[in-house]
């Protein structure tokens, strides 16, 4: 089916960014642009869901650069998972950001909101990319428009964090990615995504294909698979809404989405298995899951703990895809949504705590749950989902990952999932215990209270985490459509 809707989806977010810049001197009108555009974008994305759920695709080919290289859109089940999550969470993130930026009287708010909208345009464009060429254009665009967000505070700490952000995402990883693209085109004569894999059946040696694969894996550094993870904790110098954008809505999800595209539609599960790339990547992802969990356990700064948690959780998605068993692949795909709903809740809570009390370190949060009951209640729900406790979204994805690890026939990955869940509990639950069951410090100011414009979005995302756990059918249907 040919439709202009994929282009419209990208255009809505892009035009929102332009409108925000033009409304620089009209703060109240400017602030309305993001949530309104987010609602329109979500409506466009949802309007394409029935076609995709029925097994169809929506395509739009704009122009061809070279034979086999075109700028084109194609909406399929995997892209719909990413686009649904990004567009839905932009609505709550836009509302939360307004409350956060106003409360702290942040500078450069026009630049902030414009870059935020542009990042969503890039994310949705990547979700609907029909080939590697289009995907990489939007991938790199996302790196560029999020850099000003990481550097937002314009101090020494922001400079260090943003410099590392650029080095990892625009430096060595780009070289690997460009090499992978060039080799793919040379081998296959095309960059189009294909069911079963673009490179399946090509006349190329196993060592060459292995090199191409790992160039993709490390080239898409936003996936934060170790050792390409260090940019993510460094980017925590950004304002909390940006952290939510990085960790839940767009940036890291673009990374793992690209890895899944490579696994399913560039190499294909058959070639992944015959080259033993799946098992090699599974061990690398398992190492990332466990090591990042240990790092998270040692961090007292709440945002830093959440950052390392994200590094760990992203590799659940990669692990599910590369185990190559049906249940594991479904689990990895739906963990895109489960992690997004849960992690954005946790980052919203971290920002709410900071705005209300000025506290960033977990050790300083004793008794804060009595002052911020809705915030810490939502944090507890998000924590349960990250651990994988029913009836939350995290339980559904981890259930399928567990089944998939057993289907794969390797007990090592089952042990990784169990140990990592214990580690998740070890670094999340003490935060809630401290907030609700420890006495508050006597010097805590009496003015600590919840901010409605920030509390409503975090409660909404906590509800989303539970709702997906109870009603996972939409994302399950899309995930099954990917592997069908």
- Give the distance, in angstroms, between the N- and C-terminal Cα atoms: 19 Å
Class from secondary-structure proportions: mainly alpha
Largest sheet: 2 strands, antiparallel
Strand order of the largest sheet: 1-2
Tell me the overall shape. Answer: globular
- How many separate helices? 19
Fraction in helix: over 70%
Question: Would you give an account of this structure?
Answer:
The chain is mostly helical and 484 residues long. It has a domain at 276-484. Helix content is 75%, strand content 3%. It has helices at residues 5-22, 27-53, 77-103, 109-127, 132-150, 156-188, 206-219, 231-234, 240-249, 251-274, 277-297, 302-323, 326-357, 368-371, 373-387, 393-408, 411-437, 452-470, 473-483, and strands at 58-66, 69-75. Strands 1-2 form a two-stranded antiparallel sheet. Helix 6 (156-188) packs antiparallel against helix 7, helix 10 (251-274) runs parallel beside helix 12 (302-323) and helix 16 runs antiparallel to helix 17. The model has no long low-confidence stretch (mean pLDDT 90).
Give the gist of this structure.
It is built from 19 helices and two strands. The protein is mostly helical and about 475 residues long.
List the helices and strands and how they pair.
Blueprint: H1 5-22, H2 27-53, E1 58-66, E2 69-75, H3 77-103, H4 109-127, H5 132-150, H6 156-188, H7 206-219, H8 231-234, H9 240-249, H10 251-274, H11 277-297, H12 302-323, H13 326-357, H14 368-371, H15 373-387, H16 393-408, H17 411-437, H18 452-470, H19 473-483
Helix pairs in contact: 1-2, 1-4, 2-3, 3-4, 3-9, 3-13, 3-18, 3-19, 4-5, 4-10, 5-6, 5-10, 6-7, 9-13, 10-12, 11-12, 11-17, 12-13, 12-16, 13-15, 13-16, 13-18, 13-19, 15-17, 15-18, 16-17, 16-18
């Amino acid at each position: 089916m040919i439709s202009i809707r994929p282009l419209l989806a990208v255009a809505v977010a892009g035009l929102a960014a332009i409108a925000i810049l033009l409304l620089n001197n009209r703060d109240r009108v400017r602030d309305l642009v993001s949530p309104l555009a987010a609602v329109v974008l979500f409506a466009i994305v949802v309007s394409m869901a029935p076609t995709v759920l029925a097994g169809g695709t929506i395509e739009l080919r704009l122009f061809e650069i070279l034979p086999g290289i075109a700028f084109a859109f194609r909406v399929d089940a995997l892209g719909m998972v990413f686009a649904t999550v990004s567009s839905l969470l932009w609505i709550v993130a836009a509302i939360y950001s307004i409350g956060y930026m106003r409360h702290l009287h942040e500078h450069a708010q026009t630049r902030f909101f414009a870059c935020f909208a542009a990042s969503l345009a890039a994310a949705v464009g990547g979700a609907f990319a029909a080939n590697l060429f289009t995907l990489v254009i939007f991938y790199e665009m996302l790196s560029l428009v999020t850099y000003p967000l990481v550097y937002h505070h314009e101090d020494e700490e922001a400079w260090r964090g943003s410099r590392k952000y650029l080095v990892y995402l625009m430096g060595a990883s780009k070289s690997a990615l460009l090499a992978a693209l060039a080799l793919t085109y040379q081998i296959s004569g095309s960059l189009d995504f294909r069911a079963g894999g673009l490179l399946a059946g090509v006349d190329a040696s196993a060592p060459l294909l292995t090199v191409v694969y790992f160039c993709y894996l490390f080239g898409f550094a936003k996936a934060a698979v170790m050792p390409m993870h260090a940019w993510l904790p460094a980017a925590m110098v950004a304002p909390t809404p940006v952290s939510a954008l990085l960790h839940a809505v767009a940036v890291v999800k673009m990374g793992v989405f690209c890895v899944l595209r490579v696994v399913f539609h560039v190499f294909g599960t058959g070639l992944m298995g015959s080259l033993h790339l799946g098992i090699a990547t599974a061990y690398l992802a398992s190492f990332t899951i466990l090591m990042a969990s240990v790092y998270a356990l040692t961090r007292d700064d709440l945002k830093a703990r959440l950052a390392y948690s994200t590094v760990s959780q992203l590799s659940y998605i990669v692990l599910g895809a590369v185990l190559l068993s049906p249940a594991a692949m479904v689990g990895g795909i739906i963990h895109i949504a489960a992690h997004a709903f849960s992690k954005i809740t946790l980052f919203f809570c971290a920002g709410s705590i900071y705005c209300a009390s000025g506290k960033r370190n977990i050790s300083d949060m004793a008794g804060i749950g009595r002052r911020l009951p809705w915030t810490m209640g939502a944090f507890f729900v998000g924590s349960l989902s990250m651990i994988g406790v029913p009836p939350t979204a995290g339980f559904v994805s981890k259930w399928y990952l567990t089944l998939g690890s057993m289907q794969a026939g390797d007990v090592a990955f089952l042990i990784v999932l169990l140990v990592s869940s214990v580690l998740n509990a070890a670094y999340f639950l003490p935060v809630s215990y401290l907030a609700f069951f420890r006495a508050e410090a006597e010097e805590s100011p009496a003015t600590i209270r919840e901010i409605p414009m920030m509390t409503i979005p975090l409660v909404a995302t906590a509800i989303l985490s539970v709702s997906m756990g109870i009603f996972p059918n939409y994302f399950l249907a899309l995930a099954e459509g990917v592997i069908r």
